[in-house]
Amino acid sequence: MNKNKINEIYSKYEPHTGVIDEKILGDISLLRDTFETDIENAKQENRVLRIGIVGQIKRGKSSFLNSLLFDGKSVLPKAATPMTAALTKISYSEQPSATVEFYSKKEWNKVLEQARKVEQEEILYQAQLNEFQASKTSGLRRERGVRPPQKPIYPEESKACFELYQMVQRSGLNVDEYLDKEHVIEGTGSNETLISDLTPFVGADGEFTPIVKSSSLALNLPGLKDIEVVDTPGMNDPIVSRGRRTQEFLGQCDVIFLLSYCGQFLDSQDMALLAQNIPNKGIEEIILVGSLFDSALLDEYSNYDSIQQALPSLTTSLNDQAQSEVNAVCRQDELNHGGQSHLMQTLQNALPPIFVSSRCYDLAKKGDDLSEEEQHTLNRLNQMFDGFTFTPQILEAVANFKKVHSKLESVRENKDKIMAERLDNLLKGAERDLLQKLTAISDDITLKRNNLQQGDLAEAEKKQKELAERINAGKSKVSMVFDKYRVQIEKELHKAEQSIKQNSLSVKRINSQTGSREESYTTYSEVSDSSWYNPFSWGRTRNVSSTNYRTVNYTYANVQDAVQKLEDFVIETSDRLYQSSSQAININQFREDIKQAVRGLFDFSDPDFDPEMILLPLSNSVDRITIPTISLDLDHHINSIRQQFSVTEVEGDEIQQLRAEQARIVGILLTEITQEVSKCGSDMLGKISREEQEFLPTLIGDLESSIEQLRADLENKEQALKEYSNVLEMVEEDIRQL
Question: Which residues 6+ apart lie within 8 Å of 465 measured at CB?
Answer without folding.
Answer: none
